[in-house]
Structures are given as structure tokens and as C-alpha cells.
Specification:
Number of strands: 0
Radius of gyration: 15 Å
Order of helices and strands: HHH
Strand content: under 5%
Helix content: over 70%
Oligomer: single chain
Shape: elongated
Distance between the termini: 33 Å
């Protein structure tokens, strides 16, 4: 279940990803263009996966909170992957 501590943790991780992406974009060049394209493509994919997970959960008869948690999972997973990837790239 999503609680307030997880909400704060996720918000901080999202802010970190945004900050690292902005640093990459400010540097310009082909890497910045690739990151911008990746950012858009990943958002589309993440929201499509979240929508599919939500619909699947609701069609399976799960309650709204369980369905929301299932929809949150692919977004959380992508944010974590981006945080890790960008942190390694910044090192």
C-alpha cells in the first residue's frame, strides 16, 4: 500500500531524475538530444503500461486502491531505473 513515506521517497527520486536530466540537457550535443528523445518515449511507455495495469486490475475485480498500486508499479520501476542509469552516467 502506498503510504506517505513512500510518497515522499518517490517524489524525491523523481526530483533527482529531473535534476540529472536537466544537467544532461543543458550540456547540449547528441547526448542531450538522445536523452530528450528517451525521456519522451519512456513517459509514453510508462503511462501506457500504467493504464494497462490499471485496466487489468479493475477487470480482474480488484478494488480501486489495489488497482492504483498496480498502475503505480511500472512508473515507479521506470523512475528507479532512470535514477540508477543517470547517476552512473553522472559519476
Amino acid at each position: 500500500m502506498l503510504n506517505w513515506a513512500e510518497s515522499i521517497r518517490f517524489a524525491c527520486e523523481v526530483q533527482g531524475v529531473i535534476s540529472m536530466r536537466l544537467l544532461c540537457l543543458v550540456q547540449g550535443g547528441p547526448q542531450a538530444a538522445a536523452e530528450a528523445n528517451l525521456m519522451v518515449a519512456e513517459k509514453i511507455a510508462a503511462f501506457a503500461d500504467a493504464e494497462a495495469a490499471l485496466a487489468h486490475a479493475l477487470l480482474a475485480g480488484e478494488d480501486l486502491m489495489a488497482a492504483a498500486e498496480r498502475a503505480y508499479a511500472p512508473v515507479r520501476s521506470r523512475v528507479q531505473a532512470n535514477s540508477h542509469r543517470l547517476a552512473l552516467a553522472m559519476a
